[in-house]
Amino acid sequence: MPGEFGRNLWFESHHARLLPRHERGQEMGLLPANTFIRTVESGSPAAAAGIEPGDRVLAVGERAVTRWETVAVLLERQGEQSTAMTVQSPGQPPRTVAVQQQIKRYQGIYKQELSYLWFGAEPYHSRDIPPAEPIRGRFTYAAHSAMTATGGMLKTMWTSLRQMVTLERGVDELSSVVGIFNVAGTAAQQGPGQFLLLMAMLSMNLGIVNLLPIPILDGGHLMFFTLEALRRKPLSQRAREITSAIGLVIILLLLLIALRNDVMRFIL
């Protein structure tokens, strides 16, 4: 027994290093997992191109990739155009396939029409979320976050308004009190945070619309004051009446269009 179990085994710790090595075009070592395809949706552009689970993405176009984030950015830039992608199945030589993404449309929780580019393949990935740390300086953090979020919302609203004026977006996106009622109910179901966020967005939206240079709105009054300051004399009563009537017609027309949109979207 002492001769069989009486031996002492000593293990000495060493730091291991992985060195890049190429032999006959084959890579040796550890490869990033998120460049390997985990799943491919049936009938997707990836499946039509011949991409299979287990394939490794080597390049998109002429750009070699080492992580999936690069693949996503390059595919986003190509849009619906046909894109050459170099992939490799385990134990097989690399091959080039042609991928043509599609635009898929769906309705969000607020019944708005949304779209995205559909590739149809997902990589292996894992995320390790660190434990939450307490926020130091909560007042300054809240103030900075509020200013950042408000600025982002105002920028989005201004972009949407500019696109409507330049006819880049249609009037079918307008909504009336019927749409606000339905959206508010959906936001309330999502929780108090979403409901308060919606109320803040509506308040800012109404403030921006009220400042538009349309007669009968505050923006129209500011426009009148500016014209009178430039002319150095007030506008005639007749001119005010005509412009106010035009502004009223514009507002009523927009309300009717928005009401028609909501009826088609939420009722019919």
Write the layout of secondary structure elements.
Blueprint: H1 2-5, E1 21-23, E2 26-28, E3 37-40, H2 45-48, E4 56-60, E5 63-64, H3 68-78, E6 82-88, E7 95-100, E8 102-107, E9 113-118, E10 121-123, H4 138-165, H5 177-190, H6 192-210, H7 218-231, H8 237-267
What kind of sheet is the major sheet? 4 strands, antiparallel
Fraction of helical residues: 40-55%
Q: Calculate Rg over CA atoms.
A: 30 Å
Count of folded domains: 2
Distance between the first and last residues' Cα: 88 Å
Element pattern in H and E: HEEEHEEHEEEEEHHHHH
Shape: elongated
Please provide a written account of the structure.
With 268 residues, the protein is of the alpha+beta class. The protein folds into two domains: 27-123, Pdz3 Domain (Roll); 158-267, no CATH class. It has helices at 2-5, 45-48, 68-78, 138-165, 177-190, 192-210, 218-231, 237-267; strands at 21-23, 26-28, 37-40, 56-60, 63-64, 82-88, 95-100, 102-107, 113-118, 121-123. It has a four-stranded antiparallel β-sheet. A two-stranded antiparallel sheet has the order 1-2. β8 and β9 form a beta hairpin. The longest helix has 31 residues, at 237-267. The protein is elongated, with a radius of gyration of 30 Å. It starts with a helix and ends with a helix.
